[in-house]
Amino acid sequence: MTDVEPPEEGYFPLDHDQRNTLSTVVALVLPRRFWATATIAYGSGFLKGDGPAYLPPHTTLNVSLGRRIGENWSLAVTALNAANRRYELDEGNSFEGTHYADPRRVSLELRYRFHY
Asked: Is 80 among the domain residues?
């Protein structure tokens, strides 16, 4: 647990290492003061246990739709992990345990912008 010396080979993967990640965002300004965004994030998979194998790759979609109301108010609804994909993020190699991606989360936001 407290042995932090590198192995004799000299090279080792980090416990939260992914070989490849990619994310992209599309933001649209729509008529009637609406806007929409979509974020797609890809990860090649985290290290499985102590390695050298990796967990399967994963893709997550987040979407948001909003509207400005008047000069200072806006209203938005956001869905994180909109496709509700469940995948393993980590097989803990110490006491932290196994972690999975969060299920779909939907939130509603009402925002007021102060003038200062």
From this structure: yes
